[in-house]
Amino acid sequence: MTVVRAAVLPAVGSPLEITEIDLPEPGPGQVRVRLAAAGVCHSDLSLMNGTLRVPVPAVLGHEGAGTVVATGEGVTHVAPGDGVVLNWAPSCGRCPACARGEVWLCADALTGAGAVYARTAAGTDLHPGLNVAAFAEETVVAASCVLPVPDGVPLAEAALLGCAVLTGYGAVHHAAQVREGESVAVFGVGGVGLAALQAARIAGASTVVAVDVTPEKETLARRAGATEYVVASPATAKEIRALTGGQGADVAVECVGRATTIRTAWDSTRRGGRTTVVGIGGKDEQVTFNALEIFHWGRTLSGCVYGNSDPEKDLPVLAGHIRAGRLDLSTLVTEHIGLEDIPGAFENMVAGRGGRALVRFDQAEL
Known about the structure:
globular
């Protein structure tokens, strides 16, 4: 056993506790990783408030990258010293979804989230919140949960590839399939929304509208690729139509997960347009449509899980965009923090402040 510091969720609705935990050595098919960085993602907030359910107490954090410290028996694709990106939703390759090539819908992707992987100093069993438990100085994960960091990608920034960038880029390129010359509206300028804005620019979108509740995020949005910025209001759909020749956007990407935002995104698209929902909403968030408008507008509304991405295939593509200067990971990050600052980062998230907060475990570099 090795003692490391981690952010533990003792129970749903409870505040995070920064405490020491006992981490075992990797067993067969496992990898031990020393974290370089971890992103503070809204999905972890969804675990904290019970929107997403996993066993507790749990170590949260699912967007991370680090260095392999040790490997268990049978692990061959990585070795000690390798830089790796954590993959919180590994595919099994056997279920019907995987057989269809829809690895993002793998039935077994979160099986490991229910396992006991560590213990507190007092001996309480701990679960990994979304398989990888990245809010810790070190973690032990299944070998399928680590992918080599592509060449040319800084290790700390590679953490963002594990969720925000795969999700935002995939929502635009895989789920919405944005084509060159189309107009795109992105709702929510957090980490995923900023990645979606960059993806829309990479896809060659003609008009890219960013929508958020606060005017302070306009600079962030424009740096990521937005050509227009709209502060959310009851008139948002009308404003977007005015910015797109009176027709509405070809594509809307909703990164918030609220019924009102989903409905506004739908209303903001042109006749025959496409709305892709990325945000994770609660089961009580009900979106309503009447039968006539569904017929009349001919729009498409679709969900999106993990950007409909296949990390093994998509990470090399993203690395190519990074090396070519088309994708800038640093523009997603608005705050570098330490492990003890994670609760405050969630407070900022709830208040709508900033983009991605990145936990840097090497304090000397903060």
